[in-house]
Amino acid sequence: MIKNYLKIAWRNIWKNKVFSAINIIGLSVGMAACIVIMLFVSYERSFDNFHTKNIYRLNEVQTIGAQGATQKVALSMFPMGPSLKTEFPEIKNFTRIHWDGKYQLTQNTKRIFLPHVFFVDSTFFKIFDFKVTGGDMQTALLKPHSALLTEETAKKLFGDANPIGKIITHYGDDTVTYAVTGILANVPKNSQLQFDALFSFSSIYKPWMFTNWGGNWLNTYLELAAGANASALDQKFPAYLKRHLKGDGWKYYKLFTLPLKDVHANSADIGLDYINYQKFDKKSTGLFAVIALIVLVIACVNFINLSTARSAERAKEVGIRKSIGAYRFQLAFQFLGETVTIAFLALLFAIVLVELALPYINNLSERDISFDIFRSFKVLSVVIGGTIFIGLVSGIYPAIYLSSFQASKVLKGSVLVGKNKGLLRNILVITQFASAIFLMIATVFVLRQLQFMQKQNPGYNRDQIVNIPLDGVTTKKYDQFKSELSGSTLVSGVTASQDILGSHLDQTGVTFRPSFGPKQDLGTTLLVVDTNYLDLYKIKLAAGKNFSGGKMPDGRQYIVNESLAKELMKDYPKKPLTSLIGQRFGFDSLGTITGIAKNFNFNSLQYKIEPMFMVSARHWGFRDVSVKINGKNTATAIAYIKSKWDNVYPDYPFEYQFLDDHFNEVYKADNQVSQIVGILAGLAIFISCLGLFGLASHSAEKRIKEIGVRKVLGASVQNITLMLSANFLKLVLVANLIAWPVAWYLVHKKLQEFAYHVNIQWWIFVLAGIVSMLIAFFTVSFQSIKAAVANPVKSLRSE
Questions:
Q1: Which of 696, 676, 684 is nearest to 784 (CA)?
Q2: How far apart, in whole angstroms, are the C-alpha atoms of residue 161 and residue 135?
Q3: DSSP letters along 72-87, please?
Q4: For residue 621, which of 107, 126, 139, 475 is within the disulfide window of CB 3.0 to 4.6 Å?
Q5: Rounded distance, CA 485 to CA 265, Å?
Q6: CA separation for the pair 589, 511 (Å, rounded)
Q7: Which pLDDT value is given to residue 95?
Q8: To which H or E segment does residue 172 belong?
Q9: Per-residue pLDDT tens for 106-145?
Q10: Quick one: pLDDT band at residue 202, thresholds 50, 70, 90?
Q11: Which residues pair with 219 in a beta bridge?
């Protein structure tokens, strides 16, 4: 019987080639989109799953400004790890990580530069389950100046030789030697911690670190006892901070824990998250999954629509089968078998589409996603089970409906499709197009918001600025490098800072001691800069003057932004902001406020402008050089800068990045979201049009005699085309009226997450409506015109 059902199913598929093709193409596209997105979701959820301990990351909420503006950061203080373990029995262990980039290592005459190295406590392997392939993980980090290299790093330094026990050297602020005590397997790509080497934290211990309460410069990870309540632990932290931070300092900090397996996808609102590899908001991942399911549902709706629309063609088949003894459940089983067969045919095409799409998706998302359907029983079973489910969901209603026909009626030719079935098809078409129109509108606003953030004037000039990273060694020759660059028309300015604009800047506590009121202590953001920083970036002053070449007689110079100026003067509403000029202010030592800078977006436009100040403290060193170049000779200017770098730093590779490219990285996740949502919206529209094409084809086929009569009576091609198209265009119009308010509400809600965003404009909704109507019209008119130009003699011959 099953063999017979399959044979009949194949005959029906082959007989109705157009409708079968529409169903198979629609389902295959929907299934491919769903598979790709689910692979992406699965990859994202796999981050850090290989760790077996109950690990949490310690995070801070820092209060910025006297009005209580706060921000979450991934940083913590050096003394916190050991003191937390001592004071809270639910904490079994801790480890701390301090990261360093562009770390130079040499072995004999071989020199390499590592992008990411960690200094970690000896407890690192008691918490994390990274695989050690050589050495003893229990003792590898116990002694100062111990190093573990990944297999890739060891290969670069030692080739095929055994590196255990060998000495490697780092030339930095001081020359430091390390003994290689272990080899690590290369870090999995789905680990938020990505490193090329580990060094024992005790190698860089300094006495000041052990009492450095208030200094945030590392990450702390805690292992909680089984059954420990992390939320209850968080409630104990305020009292803990009050015990350890001096004065009122505890008021500016809060602590909270976050499970390690949630850190990668659930920390979009946490800043200074330097070692969270490929950080991606789980809200975006969930959005992709929802849209992919919508696309798949639209494809399933196509099948339901076309199956019920063509029910009259199969009525006699049902009548004959029932008259010779077929039961209703047998007919339903047969029709379900047909849909499952179509679903499996669609799966074959979907697999091809997935393989073709994955390289593009991997390039866009910078992931390494693979589709090992035949290598993983789990993946294979999910795909096959999902395909059967899709086939059953798509065919369940048509099967019930077709098998319900009464033999006596259909064999007399009196089967009625009924208005209810036409109403259901109309509702499904409206649902399809409403979903597609919503996605179209959402895509437009996502792209407009992204362009707005990328092109909005941030309050400073960032055109043709090249950023060059410095480290503890190269910063010492910054003045020489700056002098070397100053003698060419290719370079119009050189300055430096400790952070790049567009990134989360560091925070610190400050003291404001005005001559007209009591002392204030507060937290705020700082940026350490060279004296000509404001000139190169064209940051305007609202009052006061720029940094001078030397120190003021009474100490360091500070320039605050307007936001911080308002914070400092909030208790003195009658005094102008210019009263700040000359007042005592500072964080490690008091100096003088010499200027007030106009507000500028030193961070992403997702965040409002926070209180911040700039200080010129060259002796601290810089981490970034900014070079303003002549944009008409970009290649020549870069070559010139490189030649000067090689003169000053012959042993260090030249690396650079345009500031605009840095901002593109800042908005990378938003760009990825916009492109993927746009692709899915396009697929939804494509599948909806496929269904509309099939329904229009069926409608024209059913009304072929009516069209012939109308043509004989003088109807023009235009009249007939409009007649056949009008009903479908009405459905698309209704879909617009439904999609618009839903899109407005959800887009408005999403835009509120951005401190600076585009306005919702009515013309975008109207444009989406016009585009959807045009797409529907051209899709339907193809079949309508074909029917309208047909020879009426052929259609009326049987009459």
A1: 696
A2: 15
A3: EES-EETTHHHHHHHH
A4: 475
A5: 43
A6: 9
A7: 97
A8: none
A9: 988 888 989 899 999 999 999 999 999 999 988 999 999 9
A10: very high
A11: 97
Least confident of 192-196, 379-383, 464-468: 379-383
Burial class (CB in 10 A: 0-12, 13-18, 19+), 353: middle
Per the listing, tokens 């047969």 go with 334
- The mean per-residue pLDDT over the stretch 411-432 comes to 66
Place of tokens 């007919």: 331
Spell out the residues 6+ positions from residue 645 whose beta carbon is closer than 8 angstroms to its own.
468, 481, 652, 654
Average pLDDT rounded to a whole number, residues 606-621: 84
Long-range CB pairs of 768-773 (<8 Å, 24+ gap) are: 768/437, 768/440, 768/441, 768/444, 768/736, 768/739, 769/437, 769/733, 769/736, 769/740, 771/440, 772/433, 772/436, 772/437, 772/440, 772/685, 772/732, 772/735, 772/736, 773/729, 773/732, 773/733, 773/736
Surface-to-core class of residue 129, CB atoms within 10 Å of its CB (0-12 exposed, 13-18 middle, 19+ buried)? exposed
Give residues with Cβ within 8 angstroms of 274, minimum separation 6: 74, 99
Number of H helices, E strands in the chain: 23, 26
Per-residue pLDDT band at 252 (split at 50, 70, 90): confident
Contact (Cβ atoms closer than 8 angstroms) between residue 690 and residue 302: yes
Residue 156, classified by CB atoms within 10 Å of its CB into exposed (0-12), middle (13-18) or buried (19+), is: middle
- Over residues 249-272, the mean pLDDT reads 90
The pLDDT tens digits for 60-108 are 998 765 556 678 889 999 999 999 999 999 999 999 999 987 788 998 8
pLDDT by residue (tens digit) across 399-414?
Answer: 676 666 666 565 555 5
What are the angstrom distances between the C-alpha of 85 and each of 155, 240, 387? 38, 12, 51
Sign of the four-CA dihedral 75, 79, 82, 85: negative
Integer Cα distance of 164 and 182 in angstroms: 6
Higher pLDDT, 508 or 475: 475
User: Which one-letter DSSP state was computed for residue 130?
Assistant: P
Instruction: Give the pairing type, strands 110-114 and 465-469.
Output: unpaired
Which residue's entry shows tokens 């991997």?
A: 362
| Alpha-carbon dihedral angle through residues 510, 514, 520, 522, given to the nearest 10 degrees | -30
Which are the contacts of 191, defined by CB distance < 8 A and separation ≥ 6?
A: 47, 48, 50, 130, 277
- The secondary structure element, H or E, covering residue 343 is helix 328-365
Q: Are 695 and 729 in contact (CB under 8 A)?
A: no
Task: State whether residue 233 is helix, strand or coil.
Answer: helix
CA distance 21 to 30: 14
The mean of the pLDDT values for the chain is: 84
Residue with tokens 């999910």, as numbered in its chain: 382
Which token pair is 418?
């009924």
- Cβ-contact 55, 260 below 8 angstroms: yes
Q: 322, 331 in Cβ contact below 8 A?
A: yes
553 has pLDDT over 50: no
Q: How confident is the model over 632-655, as a mean pLDDT?
A: 91
Lowest mean pLDDT among 639-653, 715-729, 751-765: 715-729
d(CA 488, CA 300): 66
